[in-house]
Design goal:
The protein contains 25 helices and 26 strands. With about 725 residues, it is of the alpha/beta class. The protein binds iron/sulfur cluster.
Length: about 725
């Protein structure tokens, strides 16, 4: 995969590469796609990135990378990179302008809106794809400097559920595990997680498990992961909460729970035991479509397991009762004492490369460092640590993504800033998203490409540098901070997101307030200060080099009490693996984990005569990343998946509908329709169909329903109908 990063644009908005790279043949940086957080070794020639390979000894990926990682440099060289700011003129055409004009326009439009309509009339939608230092600067600038109130991130679409579930159950958003747990379990339970495809390197870690573990996969589809299961619980879509309560009941009734652990470390067990009594095997079997025997076998495997780990992703997080479902998983781990030991844990696997950074430092739902906006003591803390007036810290959290869009649609939010996310493709019910954005007085989109569905709608496009073109840190799923380096120049006049935020701050007039926020490294030190004394304390990290030399460092990594600041001359010695709750103490005021539960509710849209099939959505292949904004630039990755949208449908349904293999079909919901190629497969159950989320038309169909606690969209379930089209002239695969 050797390639020179061809540049079609004039020389770099970011100037020369840092001196430190010149003599080096290689440098390591964390991959910018998924939250596995693999380290990639970039090979340099004359200071330019020319190739990469997986870092052989990094504790996360152990010398492996998935197809996206191998192709990580390719999107940087795409011919359609944004190389200059673009401003829409009176004819509606986006035309190149200078940075001066762009930032003047941005500040004028946002300030004017704010002054005329108040602080709730402007908002931003950020991302889990930029560095922690950048998202912290964005959140702090927007709320403490510009005086806005509402900002959210596209992490709302993937991780809000886990964030809320952990916070409520453990007292802090704290995924407790380390990746070594994949290799130490004797029972692994995967819920709504097609790990083999979505997190292929973590799947390799499972393959390394020497204990011949039982593998329980809870998923309506026989996914690649489910195909390898020792027990596949192919339940009805969105009956997972009922199943989990039923398993808890069977485990308790069979005496496989751990009373001593429950007594010492949890609250709410008596109520929980009483509550789950209603979830008898017969009821659960009837509601999930599983047999009573399957339920007993799964409960016994979990109940008798020595080290049981539970792993969930979007099949849980993207549901109408997602938080309670995630907490039902947490409850299973707690009542069986499967936490704080090797090979255990209720473990949410994150999606985006820096969703965990966003959860701690985006300053949207949570105040910086996992604090709360509505707690005066937390606001005072942050104000003191930043040297800002306390009055500059809002006392209310941001509206969630969907609520921001509702206000946009209602004409209450009039200026919106979208950073590194393509909501016009990815947001649930995309037609509603577009309708809302068309109501805006001003839309600024900051991205690598002016060609995304969202950037095409913008009044102003701000050209941003990508992964590999800037410095900073990411935090991966297992809480490991890792380093991102600048190994290539951004094209044309593109600037790092950090530099763009600094330009806005200076032009807004709040530059002096952010005088200390001069560089990513300076902001990293500020974030360390903000983490001090919090569960995520990482004050013991010396600097970026310490992270690089250590193979990343998992939080918490506090400076030992009474110790002087880290000594740069001392070698780094963090343990390479660290899990939480080994001492049985949680982050709640009484130190106990909470068992939280709630009666299941029916899915918001059920199949009927007109829309008789349930649509499931999810990841298609390991070669595709979300909206394909970047992976779609790689000719190699494009070879690894069907070019056009495809529908997976069961042979029985296909026969009944007259759908033949590879036929063109229309898939329709109450919100819209699309055309797809039919793949007739028995991996979906009768009555269900599956569409991969990577194709822009898929969210024409999805139902805008949300979990009430996390406001995360319920992408995984809506009603559709499928109609065959007349045969067309040839294959579109
Ligand atoms: Fe690793 Fe994820 Fe990057 Fe693939 S996309 S190389 S699994 S971090």
């Amino acid at each position: 995969m050797t390639r020179e990063l061809a540049r079609t644009a004039p020389t770099g908005g970011l100037g020369q590469l840092p001196e430190r790279l010149a003599p080096q043949a290689t440098t390591d940086l964390i991959c910018g796609f998924c939250a596995t957080g693999c380290s990639l070794r970039v090979h340099l020639r004359d200071g330019h990135a020319v190739n990469l390979s997986p870092t052989p000894d990094y504790p996360v990926n152990l010398g492996m990378a998935c197809p996206k990682g191998w192709e990580a440099l390719t999107p940087l060289a795409a011919p359609d990179r944004a190389v200059t700011p673009l401003l829409r003129d009176a004819t509606g055409t986006q035309r190149p302008v200078s940075w001066d004009v762009a930032i003047d326009t941005f500040v004028h439009r946002f300030r004017d809106t704010l002054e005329r309509h108040g602080p709730e009339s402007i908002a931003f939608l950020g991302t889990g794809q930029i560095c922690t230092e950048e998202m912290a600067l964005l959140g702090a600038l927007f709320k403490f400097g510009m005086g806005g109130l509402h900002g959210d991130s596209n992490t709302r679409q993937c991780m809000a559920t886990s964030h809320v579930a952990y916070k409520e159950s453990f007292g802090f958003d704290a995924p407790p595990y380390t990746y070594a747990d994949f290799e130490a379990s004797d029972v692994l339970v995967f819920l709504g997680s097609n790990l083999a495809i979505a997190h292929p390197i973590l799947w390799q870690r499972v393959q390394r498990n020497p204990h011949r573990p039982a593998l329980l996969v809870i998923d309506p589809r026989r996914t690649e992961t489910a195909s390898a299961a020792t027990q596949h619980l192919a339940l009805r879509p969105k009956s997972d909460l009922v199943l989990l309560y039923g398993l808890a009941h069977l485990i308790i009734a069979s005496g496989w729970h751990q009373p001593a652990f429950i007594e010492a470390h949890t609250t709410g067990f008596a109520g929980f035991r009483e509550f789950v009594r209603e979830f008898t095997p017969d009821r659960v079997a009837a509601e999930t479509g599983l047999t009573v025997g399957t339920l007993f076998r799964a409960a016994e495997t979990i109940g008798r397991g020595r080290a049981v780990s539970f792993w969930w992703t979007m099949g849980v997080n993207q549901g109408h009762e997602a938080v309670r479902t995630a907490q039902a998983v947490i409850n299973l781990a707690l009542i069986t004492g499967n936490i704080g030991r090797p090979g255990t844990g209720p473990n949410s696997i994150t999606g985006q490369c820096n969703a965990m950074g966003s959860r701690l430092f985006s300053n949207t739902t949570s105040l910086l460092g996992g604090r709360r906006f509505d707690q005066p003591a937390h606001r005072a803390d942050v104000a003191r640590l930043l040297g800002f007036p306390e009055s500059s810290i809002p006392s209310q959290p941001s509206l969630a993504y969907d609520q921001i869009l509702d206000r946009v649609a209602a004409g209450q939010i009039r200026a919106l800033w979208i950073i590194a996310t393509n909501g016009a493709h990815s947001w649930i019910d995309r037609a509603a998203f577009r309708r809302a954005l068309e109501r805006l007085d001003f839309l600024a989109v900051q991205d690598l490409y002016p060609s995304t569905d969202t950037a095409q709608l913008a009044h102003l496009v701000l050209p941003a540098a990508g992964w590999g073109e800037k410095d900073g840190t990411f935090i991966n799923s297992e809480r490991r901070l890792g380093i991102v380096r600048k190994v290539a120049r951004a094209p044309g006049q593109a600037l790092s997101d950090f530099a763009i935020f600094r330009l806005v701050a200076d032009r807004w007039g709040c530059g002096p307030q952010f005088a200390e926020w001069t560089s990513p490294a300076a902001v990293f030190r500020i974030l360390q200060r903000l983490s001090a004394g919090q569960p995520c304390d990482f004050t013991g990290i010396r600097d970026y080099d310490h992270l690089a030399d250590s193979g990343g460092i998992q939080w918490p990594f506090p400076q030992p009490e009474g110790a002087p600041p880290p000594d740069p001359s001392q070698p780094a010695s963090p343990s390479s693996e660290r899990r939480l709750f080994a001492n049985g103490r949680f982050f709640t005021p009484d130190g106990r984990a909470r068992l939280l539960f709630e009666a299941p509710r029916p899915a918001p849209e059920s199949p009927d005569r007109n829309y008789p099939l349930i649509l499931l959505t999810g990841r298609g292949t390991s070669a595709q990343w979300h909206t394909q904004t970047r992976t779609g630039k790689s000719a190699i990755l494009r070879q690894l998946h069907p070019r056009r949208c495809y529908l997976e449908i069961h042979p029985d349904d296909a026969a009944q509908l007259g759908v033949t293999p590879n036929a063109e079909v229309t898939v329709s919901s109450r919100r819209g329709s699309l055309t797809a190629t039919a793949f007739i497969v028995a991996t979906v159950q009768p009555g269900q169909v599956f569409l991969p989320m990577h194709y822009p038309e898929v969210n024409r169909l999805t139902l805008p329903a949300y979990d009430p606690h996390s406001r995360q969209p319920a992408y995984k379930h809506c009603a559709v109908t499928v109609t065959p089209l007349p045969p067309s002239s040839g294959s579109h695969l």
